[in-house]
Amino acid sequence: MSNNQNVTVFLSLCSKEQSAQRNELSSVLKRAGMTVISDPEFISDGGVLSVSQQLSTSDCSIHILFPQYLPVTDSGVSVSRFQFQEAKKYLAVNPNFKVFVWQPPLTDLMNAEALQIDFINEVKNNISKSMVYSNAVSAIQLADDIRSLMEKKELVSFDLNSTDIFLISNQLDENEAKEIIDMLSDIVPVEMLNIIQDSDTDYSELCKQQISKSKLAVIYFKESGDWALPFAQQVWKKIGGATSHTPILLIGDIDPSTNTNKKFAAPKVISLIIAGELIPLEIKVQYDKIALASTG
Amino acid sequence: MLEEKICPYPGLRPFNEEESIFFRGREEHIEKIISQLEEKKFVMLTGASGDGKSSIVYAGVIPNARAGFFKAKFNNWLIADFRPERSPLKNMAAALAQKLGYTDFAYVEKELSFGFSSLIDLYKKSPFYLNYNSEIWENADEKERKKLKRKAANLFILVDQFEEFFTNSENYNNGKASVNSQAVINLLLETARIALAEDLPIYIICTMRSDYVGQCAVFRGLPEYIGFSQFFVPRLKRKEVHQVIEEPAALSGNKISNRLIETLINECEGLDQLPILQHALNCIWKSHAEDGAAEMDLIHYAKLGGIDGNLLPEDQKIIFSEWYKKQPLYKQNFLVGASLSNVLNAHARELFESSIDYCRKHIGRDISREDAQRILKKIFTCLTKINDSRAVRNRAAVLEIKQIIGEDIDNKLIEGLVNIFREPGNNLLKPYIVSSPIIPIISSVDPTTARIELGHSDWNKEENRAGAEFLHDDDILDITHESLIRNWIELTEWTKQDHENVSVINDLKKQVERWEKQNRSKDYLLTIGSLSYFKNWYETINPNPYLIAKYDSSNSAPKQKLEEAAQFIKPASDFIKISEAVIKRKRKAVLVIASVIAVVLLGFTSFAFIERHNALNQKEIAYQKTELAKTSEQNAIKEKKNARLLQFKAEISEKYSKKATQQAELSKLEAYSAKGTAEKATLEARQNLIQAKLNADLAKIETGKATKALEESEKAKQEAIKSKITAEKAEKEASRISNLSLAQSIAMKSTLLSADPQLQGLLAFQAYKLNFDNGGEALDPTIYKVIRKSYFKLNADAAVSNILTPLEQRSMAAPDTNTLLSADKEGNIYKWDRKSEKQIEHGKLLYPSSFETITFTEFANIIMSGHENGTVCIWDISSIAKPILVKELIKSHKGPLRVIACNGSKGLLATAGKDSCILVWKYSSSGTELLKKIKTNSSIQDLVILNDGNAIITALENGDLSAVDIASEKTSLLYKSEKSKPWSLKLNEGKSLLAVGYSDGKIRLFETGKIQGAENLIYTFAENTSAVDKMTFSISGSMLAAAFADRSIKIFNLAKKGHKPLSINDSKSLARFLMFDSENKLYACGSDHVIRKIEPSTDKIAASFCELLKRNLTAAEWNQNISETIPYEKTCINK
Question: Which of A204, A242, A261 sits opposite B443 (nearest CB)?
Fold first, then answer.
């Protein structure tokens, strides 16, 4: 799936009495540019194979909740519940798949059949990462939500190498950063990025991609303290904060003294202000700690 | 590394700058705003209330700018932010003086009051402005330059809550803007304009509620600027709301269950969705932290009144039930009607309930619950007002609140009552006691302390200062967000009551005014019902001048409102008192009269009672008798009626019988008469019909004759008119041809008069006019030649108005209408200002091998070079000063590379050298790959890629013009000339036409639709005999320009292919490159290091002729050079 036109939706079945709403949704989805697949001739015995086949050719599934527990398969499970369970199984092994559950407007689920309430509670209380439980007021709104949730943004991909340390500095501190690199590059693989304020480069995305290929991201500053702290914060956010695999070392020279305030305390961030001559050493120390922790 | 749990949700208040790390869901919008600012220097950010406009700027745009994700000149940023409030100029001056380092605030304010460039001047005079053309910069050594650069800063001006220009009567009164407001708007617009024109690093952003856009028309120039650069904050989509909820939790190391996320998203609808969602998330986080739970879940939401406990999962239902039983009754009540908005309602109600205990505990004041809540209600109503029938915030100073409440209350008591709403974690009222940034980010204090300074520049202001538990008279209290007014049930109700008070007071005012006008006449006092209503109201609210002034919804200034209110209190009080006294007096008099009447009535009543009793007895007897008589009478009447009825029926029957007989006789007679009349009428009608038919036939014959005569006469008339028109046309045409011929003759004459430029110019212009007035060719080569020649004689400046380049330029491109890019044979890239012909930027492609060819591609920032060693290089020239080598296709060809062709839409690149080989490349931002290597029969002179990307046309040295199919590599001969060789190729803009220049000066035009061979040839231009070096099509495709080896340039009109081309022969150098711009102006790079601008439109050159001519022709000159038979007229009317 590369764009909305190609989203293929598996629309779960329901009883004849409920088919008007389902048909309406199907029509709306088609007009929203999606391909709707579903087997209206669902047969209880052959259904297992049929559903799993259809799911495997879909990008997502939609399950509509009605108050009735109908129709029921030979094994006593409603078709709707069976298809939902199949979709969850498929989701468990296909993380890019998405399961949408829709509670249409004016559906009185509080007074639903007991078995259906049981099913609804099962759905509501076990929503997982790629599941959406929607009470969209119309089929159009639901289709619009699905379209935006299934949309994939294409990002610029930079040609980058894996490295141990990724050192970022501002053009104001370019010379000092180069000295640090000179001292470090002999003992550990280092990649460097010099931020130029009036450049067209998408530094935010570049940093995100390079940090994901590095063991430690170092943001160094001496004269550019006003830049370094917000930069570290934005990069930290971009790489996922506490969930990031690569820690950030925000390290500043103690000279000028205004740098002493430039600290950033957050999960996965080490923030230090130390004497300039000790900075290469400190970077190595922090890198070693991380390397040790990852091997240990 | 910090691993402790932190709350990533700010609650009801907006995100501040430090909290930007948790500000999610708006990334795309922030990028768009930044790019708009970079391009236009100004953005008006509009959106509905609660859409997060301030957060987008403070937690989005500003942190991104500081982080270097905003392309600007300098690294440092000065953020001058202010709100208009009641003194916009003062606030703007304060913000700028502080940021630009001016200590004399009065000076800054005075300077700014002059408007226009004042703000720019202040910035330029500040130490933060760095001019790269200044002497200081030019004389500085590298170290000093670095120092200067470190100090320099971009200026970012933020006007938050721009709508305050309209909501405060000091700024906007009776539809007119105040002088200060006008000055501020003028400064903003002029600063943005100058910054854009001079490329100064100044950026302006304003945030405004979209419902005020219409009112912006009151400021001159503002609507135009909003139209120029506006960004409407869009409503968040489901995906983005998901990010708002989940990602801050993930970033900060917290967890939130998917079922809670989905529940919250499903409830997040309508007005105030974001503030109430953020508030609920903040409360949920606190609830889960108190429970020590690992994950935020539905149970925490239920405890806040967000979801009904019965809807929880079974395991949580039990825990919730136990918790619920332990809650006080009032709190249990708050959980009723569970919903997302109820979380805010329940929170506010709980604080309201707890305020008394808080007050007692914190200030030790013993106050009754009733009094405490009554005062608190008054405080909150002071903080709201109705604006256009909508309850909105009303910021008020502590002193103002005390004055309105009017009771003997001190600041301490106010603190005791409101501080619970200002506490960290509550933050429903500003100023917050402790700002509690939601993350322990340390920018200016010790990280270990709990109380942290605010980094958000707005929060540093007086009104928002953090940590202030104590309130002073001038401290401003403000409700954090209007959603509190709409969602806290009690406050909504109080606001409604307050609004009703406005109606009541307006009603009372009218009555009092009327009473006063009538000299306090008692006829105009209140009636009993009205008195009771107004008296009750008056006693309940106990109004004072400050309260009355608050209720004054007019546009008067506050001072005037207060004076008017003070003047109203006394008469209003008198009015009610006097009304009451008069009514009391009336009541007393009525009481006395009523007593006397009562005594008299009592006597009469006793006597009347006895008499009445006797009368009633008599009446009863009489009644019985009457009833008997009535029954007898009724029976008699009944009998009589029956008898009369029978008699009447008999009479009627007799009458009907008689009448029927008479009627029958009458009908018989009428029938006889009618029959006779009908027979007569039929006869007459037959006769009339025959006569009418005869008449009609005669008339028809006569009409036919008349019509024929008329038609013949009309035909003759038309013929005569036609002949006349033809004659006139012929005469006109003859005259036109004669005049055109005369124009040619005058033009020729003018060429002989080079000794007298004025006379030459007059004749040239007269020739142009004659040609123009008589519908001559717009691109007539003779007229064009003399007009152009004469123009350069008259305007020496124009003759040299060309771009002088250091070296011979080999390629050009026009990225926009103002600038021009060129590249020379040594890899230098220049950007020129077309108007001033001055160089704007310069850079150099650094590559060790000599440059053979340089080609600007269809992409503005991509240029390709071919080198002597056969290498092709792709360069990114986004920064001309520092071109970046993107890709190097090393030694692709054996020997020097001769030509590069590119098809941007298909991402194809074709290169050819002297090695009789074409390389076809597929290129994209991710890389370049070699698709094909195609051998040709002979060395390649030039090549182009066709539109569909399937074929390449090659001009070979052996004279073949061939089409090469890329997929099959098959070559088909398109055209072969026995006498000449194809020298150069050029496709038009749509790639539908191919021009092939030959060594014998011929240019052959081919259609490129389907390559079939000679059938594709549609025309051959044979206007020269020297080889065709370079060619170019105009963008519209109407013209083709060609440069020949004899140094001439010809411009062909493709709409009239048989006509002579325009010829430019005044250049002494060879044209190395030709290019039309979007205005059809031709640029030619010469071998003499000059880029010539050639205007091919005679009309455009002639347009300025009269400005250059100093006189008109004399009568003698006219007769001698124009014609004696044509009446004299002024060549230039105004001379």
Answer: A261
* Strand residues in A90-213 grouped as ranges (E): 98-102, 131-134, 163-170, 190-195
Strand (E) or helix (H) holding A274: strand A269-274
Closest CA to A229 of B759, B77, B459: B77
Residues 168-197 of chain A whose Cβ lies under 8 A from any Cβ of chain B: 170-172, 195, 197
A227 interfaces chain B, CB cutoff of 8 Å: yes
Residue B106 is encoded by which pair of tokens? 């009065």
Q: Tell me the pLDDT tens digit for each residue of B561-598.
A: 889 999 998 899 999 999 989 988 888 887 778 777 76
Q: Is the dihedral of CA B424, B425, B431, B435 positive or negative?
A: positive
The verdict on A46 touching B (C-beta cutoff 8 Å) is: no
Q: Is pLDDT above 50 for B373? A: yes
Place of tokens 């030459």: B760
CATH code of the domain containing B149: 3.40.50.300
Amino acid at A51: V
Report the gap between the CA of A43 and the closest CA in chain B (Å).
32
In this predicted complex, what is the ipTM? Answer: 0.89
Say what the pLDDT of residue B63 is: 96
Question: Which residues of chain A fall short of a pLDDT of 50?
Answer: 1-4, 43-46
**Cβ contacts (< 8 Å) between B313 and chain A: which residues?**
121, 125
Check if A158 contacts B (Cβ < 8 Å).
no
d(CA A67, CA A44): 21
- Domain with residue A96: its CATH number is 3.40.50.2300
Q: Cβ separation of A234 and B266 shorter than 8 Å?
A: no
Strand order in the sheet with B809-813: B809-813, B819-824, B828-833, B838-844
Domain boundary residue among A150, A171, A195?
A: A150
Question: Does an H or E element contain B573, and which?
Answer: helix B558-751
Same domain, A75 and A122: yes
One domain for residues A135 and A201? no
Contact assignment for A172 to B75 by CB distance below 8 Å = yes
- What chain B residue is nearest to A199 in terms of C-alpha separation? B71
How far away is chain A from the Cα of B830, in angstroms, using its nearest Cα?
Answer: 18
Nearest by CB to residue B74, choosing from A197, A204, A235, is A197
Which residue, among B272, B248, B772, B258, has the nearest Cα to B480 in the 3D structure? B272
Q: What is the CA radius of gyration of chain A?
A: 27
Cα torsion B268, B269, B275, B278 to 10°: value is 0
In the beta sheet, which residues pair with residue B1005? B995, B1019
The reply to whether A157 falls in a domain is no
Interface test with B, best of A237, A239, A261, A273 (most B CBs within 10 A): A237
- Residues A53-65 have pLDDT tens digits of 889 999 999 999 9
Q: How many domains does chain B have?
A: 2
User: Which range of residues forms the domain containing residue B121?
Assistant: 26-235
Question: Residue A128 domain-assigned?
Answer: yes
Pick from A133, A195, A268: which is nearest to B262 by CB? A133
Q: Could A121 and B259 be called an inter-chain contact, meaning their C-beta atoms sit closer than 8 Å?
A: no
Closest partner residue to A240 (CB to CB) among B73, B251, B266 is: B251
| Statement to judge: residues A144 and A11 lie in one domain | yes
Give contacts of A235 with chain B, Cβ < 8 Å. 67
Do A184 and A291 lie in one domain? The reply is yes
DSSP tag of B386: E
- Asked whether residue A55 is domain-assigned, the answer is yes
B274 belongs to a structural domain? no
- Paired residues of B476 in beta bridges: B397
Average pLDDT value over all residues in chain B: 85
- pLDDT tens-place string over residues B549-569: 888 877 677 788 889 999 998
Q: Is B738 exposed, middle or buried (0-12, 13-18, 19+ CB in 10 A)?
A: middle
Residues for chain B: how many in total?
1135
- For residue B152, the distance in angstroms to the closest alpha carbon of chain A comes to 11
User: Partners of B1004 in the beta sheet?
Assistant: B996, B1020
Quick check: is A158 in a domain?
A: no
